[in-house]
Specification:
The complex is a heterodimer of chains A (159) and B (375). Chain A is α+β, with helices and mostly antiparallel strands and 159 residues long. Chain A has a domain at 56-154: Alpha-Beta Plaits. Chain A has helices at residues 2-29, 74-78, 117-121, and strands at residues 56-58, 66-67, 84-92, 98-108, 128-130, 144-146, 153-154. Chain A has a three-stranded antiparallel β-sheet, with no helix packed on it. In chain A, strands 1-5 form a two-stranded antiparallel sheet. A two-stranded parallel ribbon of chain A has the order 2-7. The longest helix of chain A has 28 residues, at 2-29. The mean pLDDT of chain A is 84. Chain B starts with 7 loop residues before the first strand and ends with a helix. Classes of the chains: A alpha+beta (159), B alpha+beta (375). The A-B interface holds A 12-13, 16-17, 19-20, 22-24, 36, 50, 52-54, 78-80, 113-117, 120, 129 and B 64, 67-69, 71-72, 135, 142, 145, 152-157, 160, 162, 165, 170-171, 174, 194, 197-199, 201-204, 206.
Chain lengths: 159, 375
C-alpha cells in the first residue's frame, strides 16, 4: 500500500512538471513574432513618446521670441518642492505705465518630481511638460535651468 | 545581543546563532533587515529592523498643502501608487464635501483595478523567483509592461502617476485608452491561464508553499493583517465590500476567501483576485459615462476643523489616511496606515519553527513593499 501511494505521488508529480514544461515548449515553438525588448538607444530616432509623458518643464517660445508667462508665481506656489523660482522686474510700457514681467524663470531640475501641479496651476499655459528624459549631466549646477530665453518678451494680449 | 558588523554570531551557552539577512539582500525585495535567531536550520525568532528607507513622509506632508501632499504618497507603496493617491483624494474630498463627477469615479476605479493587476503581476513573478523559478518573472513583466504603457499614455508617468486630485482626476482619458484596455483584457485572460498552468500545479512549487507559514484567522485579526494575507486565512476584510467607496457597490465581484492560511492559500487568493479585477474592468470599460472628469474646487483648499479618516483597499490590504485639520491650508497632522507594516509584523509569528529556506517563501507570499512599511 505504501509503495503504491509512493508511486502514484511520483507519477502525479512528474505529470505536474510536464504540464509546466508544456507551456515552456509552447512558448519555445510558437513564440509570438512581436518583439518586446526595445534596442535603446539604437532606436532613438524611431522611438514614440506619449504626448503626456512628463520629462521636464519647458517654456515654449514662438518665432518672435515671445512667451506667455506673466510672472504671477502661481506655479511657484503650487510646487511642493520649491523647484521653481521666479524673479520679476517692472517693464515700462510706451504709455509710461509700470508693468510686471519676468526677469528670470529658474527651474531646478534636480528637485523636480514631475507631479504636473505647476502646469495645472498656470493660468496662461506658459509652461508645459517636455518628453525629454535623458537628464544626466557631469555637474549638478547644470541642472539649474533658466527657462525664459535671452531677450524674450511676453506675448501681446496675454494678461 | 548582536553586532551589525558580524554577519553570524553564536549565542554563548546555547546551540543558537544569530544571522543577519539584509538590508542589501536580493530576497528581501528592498532594504529590509531581518535579524534571525537560528537553531541549526530551524528559525527561533525573526526580528525585522526598519529605518533604512525612512523619509519621514508623514512629517513632510504636514508642511504641504492639500493638493501638494498627494504626490508623496506615490513614493510609499510604489506598486499601487494610484490607490494611495486615491485614498488621499477621497479623504480630502470627505472634508471638502464635494460631489465627484460620475465619469471621474469610473476612471478612478478602472485605474485602481489596473494598478491592482499590475501589482499582483509583479508579485506573482517575484514570488516564483523567490522559490527558484526565474521564467515567471519575465512573463509577468511582459504583461505589466502593457499596463505601464497604458498609464504612461493617459497619466504621463509609469510608476508615480499623481493622477488623482481632490475633485476628480488630473486629465481626461486618452482617446486610445478604452481600446488599449480592451486589448489588454483580451490578451491577459489567456495569460492568467498560462500562469496557472506553468506554476500553480507544479509539485515543487506546491511542496515549497503548502503548510508553510500557517496564519490562523485569530492571529490575522490580532496582528491587524489585511488584504489577501488575511483573506487567505478566511478573514473577510475586503474594504471594497465592507466599506464601499466610489462605484464599488454597483459592481459585481466576489470577495476572494480561502481557509488554508498557509503560503499556498495566499498565492491562490492573489491569483484569483487577478481574475476578479479583470471581471470588474470588463463591467466598467464599455460604458464610461460622458461628463466632467473633475469637480470644480477652489484654488486653495481648506478643510474644516476636524478629523478625517479614509480607508481603501490596495493590492496589499487596508491603506488608511488620517488627517487632523486645524482649518488652515496645511494639515495639522497626517497619519498613514500602511498594510505592509501589519503584514510584516506577523512574519515572526508564522515563521517560528520553519526552516530558514522557507522564510523567503513566506516573505514572498506576504507581498512586502518596504517603502510602504518604512515611510
Amino acid at each position: 500500500m505504501g509503495l503504491r501511494n509512493y508511486l502514484s505521488d511520483v507519477a502525479s508529480g512528474v505529470k505536474s512538471l510536464l504540464t509546466g514544461m508544456k507551456v515552456t515548449g509552447r512558448l519555445f515553438l510558437r513564440h509570438h513574432k512581436e518583439k518586446i525588448t526595445q534596442q535603446y538607444p539604437d532606436n532613438k530616432d524611431t522611438m514614440v513618446y506619449p504626448e503626456r509623458f512628463r520629462g521636464e518643464v519647458v517654456m515654449p517660445h514662438d518665432d518672435n521670441n515671445e512667451h506667455a508667462c506673466t510672472g504671477c508665481t502661481a506655479c511657484e506656489l503650487a510646487c511642493p518642492n520649491g523647484t521653481i523660482k521666479i524673479i520679476t522686474k517692472f517693464d515700462v510700457t510706451p504709455e509710461g505705465k509700470r508693468k510686471k514681467a519676468i526677469d528670470t524663470f529658474i527651474y531646478h531640475l534636480q528637485l523636480c518630481t514631475m507631479c504636473n501641479l505647476c502646469i495645472e496651476a498656470c493660468p496662461t499655459d506658459a509652461i508645459k511638460m517636455a518628453q525629454t528624459f535623458e537628464h544626466s549631466v557631469f555637474d549638478r549646477s547644470q541642472l539649474i535651468k533658466k527657462l525664459n530665453q535671452e531677450g524674450s518678451k511676453i506675448r501681446e494680449g496675454v494678461e | 545581543m548582536y553586532r551589525e558588523t558580524e554577519v553570524i554570531q553564536t549565542i554563548p551557552g546555547t546551540d543558537e546563532m544569530v544571522l543577519n539577512i539584509g538590508p542589501q539582500h536580493p530576497a528581501t525585495h528592498g532594504v529590509l533587515h531581518l535579524v534571525i535567531t537560528l537553531n541549526g536550520e530551524i528559525i527561533k525568532k525573526v526580528e525585522p529592523h526598519l529605518g533604512y528607507i525612512h523619509r519621514s513622509i508623514e512629517k513632510m506632508c504636514e508642511s504641504l498643502s492639500y493638493r501638494q501632499f498627494i504626490y508623496s504618497t506615490s513614493r510609499m507603496d510604489y506598486l499601487s501608487s494610484h490607490i494611495n493617491n486615491h485614498a488621499c483624494a477621497l479623504c480630502v474630498e470627505q472634508g471638502l464635501e464635494v460631489e465627484i463627477p460620475r465619469r471621474a469615479q469610473y476612471i478612478r476605479v478602472i485605474m485602481d483595478e489596473l494598478t491592482r493587476i499590475a501589482s499582483h503581476c509583479l508579485w506573482w513573478g517575484a514570488m516564483a523567483m523567490d522559490v527558484g523559478a526565474l521564467t515567471p518573472f519575465f512573463l509577468a513583466f511582459r504583461e505589466r509592461e502593457m499596463i505601464n504603457d497604458i498609464m504612461e499614455e493617459t497619466c504621463g508617468a509609469r510608476l508615480t502617476m499623481n493622477y488623482m486630485v481632490p475633485g476628480g482626476v488630473m486629465f481626461d482619458l486618452h482617446p486610445n485608452f478604452v481600446g488599449r484596455v480592451k486589448h489588454f483584457i483580451a490578451h491577459f485572460k489567456s495569460k492568467i491561464d498560462e500562469y496557472d498552468e506553468l506554476v500553480t500545479g507544479n509539485i515543487i512549487f506546491q511542496n515549497r508553499l503548502k503548510n508553510i507559514g500557517v496564519l490562523r484567522p485569530e492571529d490575522a485579526i490580532s496582528y491587524g493583517c489585511s488584504g489577501p494575507t488575511a483573506r487567505a486565512s478566511g478573514v473577510s476584510c475586503d474594504l471594497r465590500k465592507h466599506m464601499p467607496y466610489e462605484i464599488y457597490p454597483e459592481l459585481q465581484f466576489e470577495e476572494v476567501l480561502d481557509n488554508g492560511g498557509d503560503s499556498f492559500a495566499r498565492y491562490l487568493v492573489r491569483l484569483t483576485e487577478l481574475r476578479q479585477s479583470m471581471h470588474i474592468l470588463e463591467q466598467l470599460i464599455d460604458d464610461i459615462p460622458e461628463g466632467d472628469f473633475q469637480a470644480k474646487t477652489k484654488a486653495v483648499l481648506k478643510l474644516p476643523k476636524g478629523e478625517y479618516y479614509q480607508p481603501i483597499e490596495t493590492a496589499r490590504g487596508e491603506f488608511g489616511v488620517y488627517i487632523v485639520s486645524d482649518g488652515s491650508t496645511t494639515p495639522y497632522r497626517i497619519k498613514f496606515r500602511s498594510p505592509g507594516f501589519s503584514n510584516l509584523s506577523v512574519l515572526d509569528h508564522i515563521s517560528r519553527g520553519q526552516k530558514i529556506g522557507d522564510l523567503v517563501a513566506i516573505m514572498g507570499s506576504l507581498d512586502l513593499v518596504i517603502p510602504d512599511i518604512d515611510r
